[in-house]
Specification:
One of its GO terms (cellular component) is plasma membrane. This is ABC transporter ATP-binding protein. Keywords: ATP-binding, Nucleotide-binding, Transport. InterPro entries: AAA+_ATPase, ABC_AA/LPS_Transport, ABC_transporter-like_ATP-bd, BCA_ABC_TP_C, P-loop_NTPase. The structure is a single chain. The protein has 11 helices and 10 strands. Strand 4 and strand 5 form a beta hairpin. The longest helix has 14 residues. The structure holds adenosine-5'-triphosphate. Adenosine-5'-triphosphate binds next to strand 2 and helix 1.
């Protein structure tokens, strides 16, 4: 199957530090491709380069058959390459449904004056409410976003990203800061989305990664040391040495 996303030879330097180093990676349509690796391996930098948030020092990104390397974040999002999480797009004083309605509005490219009035339009509210139900926030639809628990805020961000009808969602640590129950709920939600939208998932929670990913790429010092099916990655001695085998060291705070 031809790739939806093709990153080739990506490099990002911060002064003398090479955060991503000749990094190449594909995501096929509908695939959940996880990127794992130790702290500082370059995972967030890669996401920012793919989203168009950080300009690359070298390399190209093709998305859905187009070269997008020189496009900014908004232009890539319009093509369906959308980043969720670690963004502060949620408006805390707006309700859940208003926030999602505004994301629907952004997709439709409509400008109906003030945001609040725009968010009241049925053409925006109806798809917003459907998405909120789907994402499991139905009972919270008319509550202000600031009153949501942490995990629910993350669900809202996911609903807002989905409102833009992405082809590929870039997910940077969706489970960060979540307790076990919230993590399970978010994993279940992402499982529901699998196949409908492709995902590039950066996540430290290995249970979530191995439950969700079709393929896993392992980054170490900005380089991809392995890409493969989850079972092959788990069994790869170089990966175990570089990352998966570091639980004890992690617990000791040495990584
Ligand atoms: N804006 C920046 N300026 C300077 N150095 C940066 C910047 N952003 C990232 N770095 C450095 O680049 C390297 C890669 O960082 P990055 O955040 O991409 O790693 P990561 O794999 O996402 O780590 P983590 O798992 O801890 O989130 C790190 O050494 C980091 O300190």
């Amino acid at each position: 199957m031809s790739a939806l996303l093709e990153a080739r030879g990506l490099v990002k330097r911060f002064g003398g530090l090479v955060a991503t180093d000749d990094l190449s990676l594909d995501v096929t349509p509908g695939e959940c491709h996880a990127v794992i690796g130790p702290n500082g391996a370059g995972k967030s930098t890669l996401i920012a380069q793919l989203a168009g948030e950080l300009a690359s020092d070298a390399g190209t990104v093709r998305f859905d058959g187009r070269e997008v390397s020189r496009l900014g974040m908004a232009a890539r999002a319009r093509l369906g390459l959308v980043r969720s999480f670690q963004i502060t797009a949620v408006l805390p004083e707006f309700t859940v449904v208003e926030n999602v309605a505004l994301a629907v509005q952004a997709r439709l490219g409509r400008h109906w004056g003030f945001w609040r009035r725009a968010a009241d339009q049925p053409a925006l509210q109806d798809p917003a409410r459907r998405l909120i139900e789907e994402i499991g926030l139905g009972p919270r639809a008319d509550m202000k976003a600031r009153t949501l628990a942490h995990g629910e805020q993350r669900q809202l961000e996911l609903a807002m990203a989905l409102a833009t009808k992405p082809k590929l969602l870039l997910l940077d640590e969706p489970m960060a800061g979540m307790g076990p129950e919230e993590t399970r709920r978010m994993t279940g939600l992402l499982q529901q989305l699998k196949g409908r939208v492709a995902m590039l998932l950066v996540e430290h929670d290995m249970d979530a990664v191995f439950a969700l990913a079709d393929r896993v790429t392992v980054l170490v010092y900005g380089r991809a040391i392995a890409t493969g099916a989850p079972a092959a990655i788990r069994a790869d001695p170089a990966v175990v040495e570089a990352y998966l085998g570091t639980d004890e060291a992690d617990a000791a705070g040495t990584v």
